[in-house]
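Technical appendix A lists one of the benchmark inputs used to test multi-chain prediction within the project. The record comprises two sequence entries:
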Amino acid sequence: MAEPIKLSIDGKPVTVPPGTLLIEAAKQVGIEVPSFCYYPGLSLQGACRMCLVAIEKMPKLQTACTTVVTNGMVVHTDTPEVANTRKSMLEFLLTNHPLDCPVCDKGGECELQDAVFRYGAAETRFLEGKLHEEEKKFSNLVYYDRPRCILCFRCIRVCDEGMDVNAYGIGFRAAHSEIIPNRGEQLECEECGMCIDICPVGALTSGTYRYKTRPWEVTYTGTICNHCGDGCRTTLSVRNNVVIRANNRDHSGLNGEFLCVKGRFGWDFVNSERRLKSPLLRKNGKQEEASWEEALTFTVERLKTILAEHGPGAVAVIGSNRTTNEEDYLLQRFARTVLGTNDIDHHRTADFSSLVRALTEAGATDRYATIEDISAAKSLLLIGNDPTHQHPLIAYQIRQAVRQHGARLYIVNSREIKLRRQSSQYLQVKPQGEAEAVRALAGQAPAAQDLCAGGTGALTALADALKKESDTVILFGDEIQGQTVNDLVTCGLTLPGKTRFVALGDYANSRGAADMGLLPDTLPGYQPLSNEKARERMESAWAAKIPAAPGRNIRSIFEGIRAGEIKALLVFGANPVKTFGLDNAALTGLQLLFVAELFRTETAELANVVVPAASFAEKSGTVTNTCGEVQALKRTMRQAGTRSDLEILLALARLFGQRWTYQSPEDVLREIIALVPGYDIPLPSLLVGRAVPTHPEGRPPALERPDLVFSSRDSLFTSGTLSRYSWALNSVDEAKKPYGHAF
Amino acid sequence: MLSDRLKAKFDSVIARYPLKRSAIVPLLLFAQDEIGYVSDEAVEEIARRVGVNPIEVIEDIGYYSMLHRQPVGKFHLQVCTNISCMLRGGEKIFEHCAKELGIEHKQTTPDGLFSLEEVECLGACCGAPAMQVNYDFYENVTPEKLDALLADLRKKDQGSRIKD
């Protein structure tokens, strides 16, 4: 470590690491140097001249945002010269600025407004008329108001450097300069909206938020995005029980300022007109509105009849990739102990079980990578998946790792994914060739000559390069499952340093669903049902018997329904008809199809009973991201008529005569912390909004068949069934591009 | 389609610069000379050849007023109204042009023969008021001289460049 640098700012001694920028050094001793173009993590611009400070022995004022500190530097930010300069700079910035703050979206949270309040002059010397331009609609989600723009270039830089989309430029010159989009008058991009949030003024505004409210009139609640598996923290702005905006206002959480198009705009399904508001009960072949009591009593009575006539083997349960850990945990408890069946599964989008087993067998359960490990990694190996679409935050963190500290990215993929632009080595294999490449890398089986275009030499080169790296983070998609995960882990652990792993699953709580045991053969925490001790431990906690024999997996459940063996199916927050491409006849043999859903999905349409479930914005609880980090959802609003899956499960259990004593999601969480291996997490960390890593340890049974684990391959603009009910996600032209299109 | 001649020209120009992107402005001028303006195709081709994003080429076009994204007239009249020319009647010359041709700043006559643009200093202050038609300069312009010039240009309906 190089010697720290000592300098003085406004008479205060400061000690910082070499290479620190003056503006950052000042922050450390609580001295604010105003700036617009400077943004931590982006390249330096030096455009706005707001951060000029006096440095002794330098003839003119210097920009603090581009000056690197040196030993013995004496800096003044409080001289009359600096104060006058700030005043002048603001006067210049306001020459053409419309001062329409009373109607501007940014009013109240505008960096220019704040700077003028603190450092500006009360009057202007410019008497000329202001240049005016009409606002421009770059897309349905991004609008540009030229007169408000102060040309800080943050939007251009975040689009180039952060997103690698390069959709913005600067057009014309001098007083007529303006931000221009890449397709004439239109933007063609990922529509992430990073440019809107990063804009210090109200020049770039959001198509869904603009002119809706004043920022001080809404309540802000930090919660977790419900779309992909990355677990971005997002702040929902709610007014009159309507979500108006989502952004990560305080840059807290593992995503910092990052949100993708789904995180920033895709929450609007919450307020969709098509949300179910009342339970539906099928009477004379038609679904009709019913009361909660009627719907739930009917369900329980029908279940009791089926259980009495056909036994617990006639009832199956399908869980969700989006419901909370608490709900998933209760769902499997309900299935195993109240219904007495292990026929419980969910749409598995990554083979988490095999990763847990492989790491447990290798004694390496400290090797689960977190999101932070990805951005801090020096070396990354990405096998399969297309994070740009399926895991936008992870793609962002990978780009950060490459750009900020020169990490090497190695890719094995059968498609030309966009991240190859950042890669050191990109190994394109034949379709579905990822697993074969892993087996070859692991020395399990030689690679076929036609595996990759350049022959097997490229594979050897990749193996050699990885051997020279250390602390590699290995990320893999659904292409790698079952025994191949084991091969990958075994091989990865022989690499130098502390190799870490991430299995990339699709949705907000795909990982949690597996962790909480929404699986036919596995109890919570990846404890196999066949393990008597694990079973007894849960049995004594729940004071109920758990059937010892493993249940049916989701494919066998469908086969069981077709064969007439399964008479009742309970579905919570899933749309198996669509996900598994079931035909209309597939579920008709059921005597009871109960669906808890937000919308009348293809599955809900077939049901006898549909109950309206609460969305992520309407409930509390925890979710676990694909890296295994647990974060807390916080209830933001209420939707009349709906109930959370947790409330629904508690009501069903009560009607079955169960005396469950849970009062709140937190009570369930306490039980999870106490009982689920790997989930002994500190509750306070969770409650203050941290992402708490878990280290599951267990030996779940091997994957039964290869068609159980598959990703939905969502694009940036889709999120399973949910995205269909989002106006914003469907409003942009980019959503119509073929899957995998790189912007 | 860009002509083979233009593509060959691109190759030879790019080879002259140690940094490929330095060739953007000359490439744009050559493309405009051949096509009459800078087409989308030309933007894409130049961006590809010098290894930048198309938006960066578009930025350069916006910066330089002599580069056009839309077709201009066969004779592109650029009248200077900057300070020296203004003091010597440049604005009157511009207005005269506008009246005679029936078009305004950055407009083209319906027959596509003339387009008009009010420009900043042409670097010909010693002969103010000055104007430029395509690449040719005309100095000490008066309304009478301008009328004669317009009549002359109308006669020259052959060839893409006037050579006096």
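Chain B touches chain A through eight residues (CB under 8 Å). The helical segments of chain B are 4-14, 24-35, 40-50, 54-63, 83-87, 90-101, 143-155. Comparable benchmark entries are summarised in Table A2.
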